[in-house]
Amino acid sequence: MNLKQLASKEERFVSGHRLCPGCAAPIIVRLTLKAIKQAVVVATATGCLEVSSTIFPYTSWRVPWIHNAFENAAATISGVEACYRALKRQGKIRKEIKFVAFGGDGGTYDIGLQSLSGALERGHDFLYVCYDNEAYMNTGIQRSSATPMGAWTNTSQVGSAQLGKKEHMKDLTSIVAAHNIPYVAQATPANYLDLMRKVEKGVSIKGPAFINVLSPCPRGWRFPHNKTIKIAQLAVDTCFWPLYEVENGVYKINFDPGKNKKPIREWILSQGRYKHLWKNRGFIREIQEFVDRRWERLKQLSSMG
After folding, report:
1. For 58-104, how does the pLDDT look when each residue is reduced to its tens digit (9 = 90+)?
2. Which CATH class is domain 3-304?
3. HSE of 154 in the Cβ direction (CA atoms, 13 Å)?
4. Domain residue limits, the chain
């Protein structure tokens, strides 16, 4: 699909929302909904996406949409999906409907993890899309378990006692894959065809699917709002955010930069949240080693498939 064909597809998430200039979340939502051919019902956890797209009496959603608490998007959509199956068995609904939940990293990695894990374990037929902007951006840029090591947030301050977040980010994609669900993937809005293909695959399989999408945040990451897609692509080129999928337990890398793999220093220099590390070679080396270890492990898992 080329850009002209993509632009001609029906818009299910429209303009007029109050999301920040350069925010990747609306790009991710638009691509996700454009990739789904069937009727769709959406649940969205409290967060940037929800509060900025549904300011009463306006909405950017052109599909049936449910707002729920910060922590229970997966439980909400699994309940709706269970109701649909019951009505279908009774012959009251014949239409094919897909079910999608959107949540940020705060509502997915952290306070929504129990809800998500339960829905995955029960085997509900839905797609969960995490737009991962690596902090609680909606409430003032506080750290989450998705925040990378060394990054500044309002709760991982920079000073003589601490240089940003002390801990490495949680590998939620691997945690979800450990639930042995049919389909798990990582994507970015920069690689839009890859993201849309993964959405199509996620909604086509029977059972739960999960896609973790890196969502660069100009406000929280401290970069110019017109650099969002370039930042997302840099995450892939440095292997900070590898593109891969796990289908029925089999790992597959979707993009390997090979000898063109860029150093993590380029990723760090691209964002003001790392400004205090720009001359800290020791810290940058530690982050590089962490990224390299994860990349090598992923290549091993992929070769085993």
Report:
1. 999 999 999 999 999 999 999 999 999 999 999 999 999 999 999 99
2. alpha beta
3. 10
4. 3-304
